[in-house]
Amino acid sequence: MFVFLALTLCRVLEHVGHRAARAMVVLVAPAAGICSLNVVFEFAGLRVATGAVDLSTLGAEGSNAMALLMLDTQHYGLLIAQVFFGLWLVPLGYLAHKSDWFPKPLAILLVVMAGCYLVDVLTAFLVPDLNELIYPFIIIPCVVAEIWMAGYLLTIGVNTNKIVKPGEPVPAVA
Description:
Elements: H1 2-13, H2 18-50, H3 59-87, H4 89-98, H5 104-126, H6 128-155
C-alpha cells in the first residue's frame, strides 16, 4: 500500500517537479522492501516464542533468547526502514510546497517530520537513553503531519477542473 500511495502521489504531483516525484517513489521502494523482509523476523520470533519450532536443545533460556533476538532484529530493521520513511517526505514536502493544492504549513511540517524521523533513528542507534527522553517530543510533529495529510487528502483531496487522460500532465489548479 505504501508503494501505491507513493505512485499515486507521484502521478498527481509530477507536474510540479518530475524529478522530485520520481525521487519520492525511489525512496519509498527500499522502505517497503525492508518492512516486508522484517515480517520474516517477526514471524520467526513468534514461532520460537510459541514453541512451533523445537529449540529444546537450547533450553528455556536459549529459546527465549532466540525469540528476543528475532524480535529485536525486526525492531532494528524497522528503524533502518524509518530512514527511508523520513527521506521520502523531503521530496513530498517540496512537491506539496510548490503545488497549489496543499497548504504551505502542511508542506513545511512534512519536511520537519522527515527530520524528526531521522533524529529518532540516529538517537535510537547512537544514544538510546537520549532517544527514550526525546521520543515523546519527536513523535508530535509526525502524528500531526500524518493525520493532517491523511485528513486533507480524504476530506478536501486534489481537485482538478478536468479529467486527465493517461500520459497527459495534471493541470495546475487556479
